[in-house]
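Task: encode each sequence below as structure tokens.

Item 1
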Amino acid sequence: MDGIKINFTVTEFVFLGLSSEPRLQLILFIMFLLFYLLTVAGNVVIITIIQIEPHLQTPMYFFLTNLSFLDICYTSTNVPQMLSNMVGRKKTIPFSSCATQMYFSLSFGMIECVLLGIMAYDRYVAICHPLHYTVIMDRNTCIQLAAVSWCCSFLSSMVINVLTLSLPYCGPNVLNHFFCEVPSVLRLACIDTSLTELVVFVFSIIIVFIPFLLIVVSYAHILLSVLRMRSTSGRYKALSTCASHLTVVALFYGTAIFMYMRPQSKSSRAGGKVIAVFYTVITPMLNPLIYSLRNQDVKGALRRVVAKQRT
């Protein structure tokens, strides 16, 4: 019977998770629960401060509000399931629930890629064309750019998920992961997945790499513009507004490109899980800390809100 694959339809997937050691699972549960609570609380604080502070009603902070809301959605798609698997005996997920989780997780990840590219363009206009900034990045334009990022990502994710889930899954049904993600699910298909992997790669080029190029080009122009400035304080102010965004880009894009823009045959399954932890758990938690600690406007607004609460 060796080499013969049993032909049955998979109705659920079993997660291997990050560890099978009970003590380590308990430690990981406490750690990731804390990370999740910090993520939600931190991003809610950022959204609240931006909404109640009049001088933060600018395009930059409009997109930051989108990013904070997105991080809450992104981490909520994956982390509760992971926490449940760590403490529960049954580490399974129905096929339909896996499909839903995979769709929204991929959608939110794609939105973040596009949104980070738009935020880089916003900084380029603000620093390189300051006199035309309010005209180019008016409220309607910002809303349209945000809407395009959400709509295009949801549609792209639908195409990838339809192709992935239309493949036959006839066993085994064990996912070496802690949530349903396209690369890990593709490994369980019963047929050759080269065509689907090619489609995923093409969409990765469009949704991941093109915004990344926009970021690189935008910051190249920003750097040239900053070098032309004669005022040291002007240079510092220009670079300080970009530092937070660049840090977030490095954290998110570095791991996302490594995960989705390499051949599946060359990917390490254990390494893939560690990388996935960074862009699904760590980065959404660090984003509000990065933007609050490195951004003078946000820190000042936070101090004013705290001062108002005390008086």
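Item 2
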Amino acid sequence: MQIVGFLIALVGVAATVAATFMVEWKKEAQGKFHIYEGLWMTCSGTERTTCERHKSVLKLSDEVQATRSVMLVCLFLSAVALIVSTVGMKCTRLMDSMPESKAKVAVTGGMLFLISGFVTIIITSWYVSIIVEIYHKSHRLQTREFGNAIFVSLGGGFFSVVGGAFLSCRRCCETKSSASKSSNHLLPTTHSKSNYV
């Protein structure tokens, strides 16, 4: 179960990394002319698109600055969660001499995956709400759409949450069961071994 949770979380991290650096966060269409706006660059054109990186951070809109910063924080949390979960998983040889500490490390890794996934979903949903608000306020003849990066980001956050839940809950259940087994082992056992004359 730990390996399944780790693999699911790994898929979520890969999707989050891909979404962070994808260009299609927002799409605008003016006839045959398309504009794709991402967190790091903007691409425009008809059949052939030309891309230009965002050179100045101050010229970016607030939603792009906030989303880019939070997504980088989520990637950092995911990287830490990968390292911590690898140390705490039962299939690794690390910290075998300290099983209780290893269980706590696994729980910590799962919680970091949960936090990273939830924050990714929250910031992506906020970005979507900003796009919808701008669309309703705009009176120009433009077609605004959500880019593929938004759906990839939401999927990455969802998989990170599911994988973190698998890691955390499975480890908690194993800890409780092991504690109950140890307590049962400490109870005095009566053996019906007596010699009658």
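Check on item 2: The CA atoms of residues 73 and 116 lie 8 Å apart. The beta strands are 26-30, 33-37, 41-45, 49-53, 143-146.
End of task.
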